[in-house]
Amino acid sequence: MEGPSEENLIMEVREEEMISPAGGVKSIRIAYFLRPSVTSIDGHVFDPPVDSVNPTMVDNPVPLKAKFVGWRYPKKDWKKWVYRMQSLHHSTWKQAGIHDAIINSTFKIHRSDDLILGVAEKWCSKTNTFVFPWGEATITLEDMMFLGGFSVLGDSVLAPPGDGEETIRKLHEARSHIIVGKVQRASQCAWMRKFMDSESEIEHEAFLAYWLSRYVFPCGHDLVLGTVFPISVHLVRETKIALAPAVLASIYKNLSLLQEAIVASRKLGTREGQKEVLKVQVTAPFQLVQAWVWERFPTLSPKSNSVRCGEPRLAIWHGLKKMEMENVLAAIDHAEESFIWRPYMRALNNSLLDMVYKEKDYWIFVESFLGDKFEGLVRCLRTSELVSLDADCIEQYLPHRVAMQFGMDQDLPGCVARVNGSSDVAWSNYTRTIVDSILYIPARLFESDVTTRYMKWWKKLKFARSGTTKAGKDGKSASRSSKREKLEGLLKSNLEDDNLAPPGFPPKSNTVKAGVSGIKDKDMVGKKFQVESIQIILPRKDPQRKSTLSSYDFHGHGICERSERKLMESLSGTKSDTDALVPPPSGFSPKRARVEAENFGVEDKETGVEVLEGESSENRSEGHAKSCSLTNPEAAGMRLEERICTIEKLCAWLKAGNHCLDDIITLQDC
């Protein structure tokens, strides 16, 4: 019997040369990719169109007025209705997979137009991804689950009502009774007045119809939609409906419309003597888009709320004020090192994390019945077509382009043919059978990489950055690329300087003639490299293993700063008088201090940062003592100052993410 077709497989495993997306040291290891991936730049790779994310700029763009009609704030009476119905139908909501989504409608997410427009400008409708200068990212089905509270499993939103026709007839009859005005439309306010606390036999269905019309599929008018009645009937009967793909399709479509309007406003320009305003109406629930940005861009997000056990994830952004940013685009374009690929993996009270993602990676065999949790994960990981409530809205879902958001490694993304001939055909594609016999589940805190060919491919695309500086929260700016280049240049010049050797001694023969970022040869792993007075040893590690730093907090602070501080204290002598590094008397070797790994905040006991302890002068060999001697105390003081300066530069370089923290660093002879 023939095996499953490769084009239908979800993932693949192979050995590749990998590198951090922020750059750094290359390594060859076993990597895990989402399909389809391409192993050659000359292969069938779909390049995001550069023009779509680098629009032609004009001096006087047409003003853009975006109206976010799908962004609904909760009304006071709505909250009361929700809490009353929750007390009556809590178990039904849980079974139908809508409990958290309904509770989310009671939260108020303050809108930041500048933030929404800034990130929407990076949207590419060809790939349904945000195209940043440093890589691709997008809103996924996983985001719809965690942030929206919607289910990825269940029947289609276009599924027929079955035997619920009588209930739907009653809903339509009630709707016809509240239709007023010349437009003959049923307002949401009138619907709430009719059914709230009415104890009607169809109050629950009417409640869900209101929720679906206002918060899930808003149409731009405060109307109750008859098209949601079949969905409300299914949900009351505890039939799960896949709302996640339908909402995500609507978000994709509206992001494309908004991005097109932004590009048009910048290309057209204002005609002389005319006051033109370009208007665009956004009907999707874009509060989820802003929450997505806040989850992943720490420099653009306010300090999050603490979440009580059992509360939906969206609660951490409830009621928070927007941040004032001078240049949102510049902050987005330079967020490559602060971008959080997997923000939800840090939550400790989420059932999906408890049941699917573990502290260590593992494999699971696919059986005839995989279970809802893993079935939902598969829907998030594989390419598919997304069907919205509007049958004409079918959007392509391409998670293989943003594999790092799922803890998988990223390679060149292959092309995926459309399967959108009709809503039925597209839905069949979304619900197709899993053909993989085994699935890989990455560790909860695993940080994935990209292949070196992906890095080369991306750099060739040459996406422009908005501005040349990085704007920080304090309003200051700093050029990341120029500072890194200067620092690497300084390190390189210091490494190549023969005058680094003590007076009267030749330079050390094992000095590296390139910056630290140039250590790329896999054969050099485990060997030593001299960087002035610092010796870096690239440890021999399990190629499939990455250390997880549990002391790393939400906004990316913690271990790097603590490690740098401890290292500098040991070198400068500010921590302990007995361990201070001071120029030794003539003829004696300098004292060296030992700092244990835990002092650097590294919780993984298999890794650490160590400054070796020197032996007593009696136990040192004569040759070693001579190589460490200095001509006089004044020269020793100058050398110590130079070394501390270089240490500071190296620490800053390490802090910027250019080298692994689990490398072993030892202090060489002074």
From TrEMBL:
Database matches in InterPro entries: AminoTfrase-like_pln_mobile, MAIN-like
Domain of life of the source: Eukaryota
Domain spans labelled Aminotransferase-like plant mobile: 97-459
Pfam families: PMD (PF10536)
Region (Disordered): 492-515, 568-587
Listed GO biological process terms: meristem maintenance
Signal peptide: none
Entry protein name: Aminotransferase-like plant mobile domain-containing protein
Lineage: Eukaryota, Viridiplantae, Streptophyta, Embryophyta, Tracheophyta
